[in-house]
Amino acid sequence: MRVDVPPGKDPIGYVWGELVPGIGPAAAHLSLAVYEHTTLGLREFEAARLRVAQLNGCAFCLDWRTEREGKKVEDGFAEAVTQWRKTDAFDDRTRLAAEYAERFVTDHHGLDGDEDFWDRLTAHYDQRELTELTMCLGSWLAFGRLNRVLGLDTACTLPSHAQ
Asked: Three-state SS for 68?
């Protein structure tokens, strides 16, 4: 880990809450808002989130599965995300969410003039949904990379994995 965490402190709680008190809690609120206030469907949300996690390499993000009303995506969903171009497990919205996530992370400049992509995306997402998805992507890109670069992604354990 790249940050010294005092003994007995949770790394995520310390870095996101105490270390930079003017920024960390605000960032944490944005990160939580993405999950608490999204109107996107679970499958498209998770396809985009997982594709960002795969490209960022954040171990914590890769292990996480969003739950809504007691439901999570099926086993094998993460593998389908890596195969978003050819999987038959996705509808158009889910496939587009994974594609948008990949392009947002790896080639955001290339999105600018790709009218074919924007025509396909806006045929399935209205402007509110598109803006929401884009804000989610920005959050996952920034905070997943922060966790990965500082080594927080391997220092934290999901509650379901705690012993």
From this structure: strand
